[in-house]
What does this fold into?
Amino acid sequence: MTITTAGTEVAYTITYLEMTEPPRTAPALPDDVRLERCVQPPVWFFLSLYDAVGRMYEWVDKFAEDPEDLHDFVQHPEVALFVAYRHGWPAGFFQLDWRSPGVCDLAYFGLVPEAIGGGIGGTLLRTAIATGWERDGVRRMTVNTCTLDHPRALELYKRMGFSPVRTEEHTRILTRDRDTSQFPA
It folds into this structure.
């Protein structure tokens, strides 16, 4: 076990990906998973999902964002938040952003740690992709991930049909201790 302590500067790579053809089939979520689109979700609700999914992966940027800008993003009519409930609690979520003409950006996607390995991740991602392409006029779907995310995220996006288009190198100061041995399998 190697812990990188909060306050340490770490390097990471962001990979930007795109998909230019919609999937051929839309998947069905398991019977015990209920997907709900949130109507005008409060910012606190979005942030609770964002933190539950991204806490181990250094998802902190939205907490530092200007509150008015964050509110405008979360409540924008061209941005949609979907939550997957299993056993009565949120197992994961995705957020789609159609603000750029012809593009659907998969702004956020993930499962809470307790849901990883439960057999819904791939199906939920396929559902997110199919939902993004349902909007008239979408010609391209985009997503990005980074080396701070779950170590299998990039390969999962590629398996789903996304292709890398560019990378960027960055550094950041960790806000929390990081123990990658604790990442769910």
